[in-house]
């Protein structure tokens, strides 16, 4: 009696690799396992602050101290009224910290999950979703600072603040794509993360984080060419009581679309090599 073997679930044919279908299956599987990504993200936060008395509130405290120091200093240097500058700086710095941390974590989204990738057949997009959710949890601890500063200085929230919701969605989509793209690039080339870190340091000074866009004069319309500024301004402007302008929103959507397209193209082409790269 001949022995029959079960048919493999995923049969690989070198002549027909089905890269796009497998990438779509990975994406659907990763999004369907969002609860697992959420649990892993919470575990990351818990592990990072294990043994700490304040826990993640240290993030809020350190951000508040930085706001106080930078607010008083640069208000004097730029000769701007404190009641006008500090609320603006609060929104800028919190949004910047979120964006900077997402990019930093994206570089290690796959290499940081090396043990899981080598031991469990999970969709790779779970690890990208984990990065987004982990930084969303961190942002939740810092966002209340905006309300506190606005209350102290009497800054009202207008209906424009609702535009921050789609802006955060744009940022989340871009962060997810960046976690896939940068995670794969940095898994293949291990000297890329320090380069990304240096680029983000430069971006801090050229993206209108501590200085206002109006300070550059006639160069202000060209600021959305900077993707960091475009995404930041799409979130910051509604919270400060304006729309930010059509150009800012178009630039934010365009830069996000470029990131999504690059991540998808790279993921489809090289997804099968991730396990060997990590």
Verbal overview:
- The chain is 69% helix and 0% strand.
- The protein has twelve helices and no strands.
- The chain has helices at residues 19-32, 34-48, 57-78, 82-106, 114-119, 125-142, 144-153, 164-188, 192-206, 227-239, 246-270, 274-277.
- The chain is globular.
What does this entry show, briefly?
The chain is mainly α. The protein is 69% helix and 0% strand.
Distance between the termini: 44 Å
As for the number of domains, it is 1
Unreliable segments of 5+ consecutive residues: 5-10
Series of H and E elements: HHHHHHHHHHHH
- Class based on secondary structure composition and strand pairing: mainly alpha
Total number of β-strand segments? 0
Shape descriptor reads globular
How much β-strand is present in the residues?
A: under 5%
Query: Measured on Cα atoms, how large is the radius of gyration?
Result: 21 Å
Question: Averaged pLDDT, please?
Answer: 86
User: Fraction of residues in helices?
Assistant: 55-70%
**Main sheet makeup:** none
Count helical runs: 12
Topology:
Elements: H1 19-32, H2 34-48, H3 57-78, H4 82-106, H5 114-119, H6 125-142, H7 144-153, H8 164-188, H9 192-206, H10 227-239, H11 246-270, H12 274-277
Helix pairs in contact: 1-6, 1-11, 2-6, 3-4, 4-6, 4-7, 4-8, 4-9, 4-10, 6-8, 8-10, 8-11, 10-11
């Amino acid at each position: 009696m001949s022995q029959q073997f079960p048919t493999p679930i995923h049969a690989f044919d070198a002549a027909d690799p089905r890269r796009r279908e497998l990438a779509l299956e990975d994406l659907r599987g990763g999004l369907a396992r969002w609860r697992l990504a959420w649990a892993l993200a919470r575990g990351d936060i818990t592990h990072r602050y294990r043994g700490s008395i304040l826990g993640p509130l240290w993030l809020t405290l350190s951000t508040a101290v930085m706001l106080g120091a930078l607010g008083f200093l640069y208000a004097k240097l730029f000769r701007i009224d404190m009641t006008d500058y500090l609320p603006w700086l609060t929104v800028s710095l919190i949004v910047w910290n979120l964006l900077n941390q997402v990019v930093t974590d994206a570089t290690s989204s796959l290499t940081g999950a090396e043990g899981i990738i080598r031991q469990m057949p999970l969709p790779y997009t779970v690890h990208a979703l984990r990065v987004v959710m982990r930084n969303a949890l961190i942002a939740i601890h810092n966002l209340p600072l905006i309300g506190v500063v606005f209350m102290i200085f009497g800054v009202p929230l207008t209906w424009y603040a609702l535009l921050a919701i789609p802006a955060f969605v744009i940022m989340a989509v871009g962060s997810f794509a960046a976690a896939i793209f940068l995670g794969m690039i940095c898994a293949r080339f291990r000297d890329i993360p320090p380069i990304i870190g240096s680029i983000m340091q430069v971006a801090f000074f050229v993206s209108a984080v501590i200085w206002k866009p109006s300070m550059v004069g006639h160069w202000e319309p060209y600021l959305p060419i900077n993707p960091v500024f475009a995404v930041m301004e799409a979130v910051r402007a509604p919270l400060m009581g304006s729309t930010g302008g059509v150009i800012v929103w178009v630039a934010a959507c365009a830069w996000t679309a470029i990131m999504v397209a690059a991540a998808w193209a790279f993921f489809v082409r090289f997804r099968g090599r991730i396990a060997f790269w990590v």
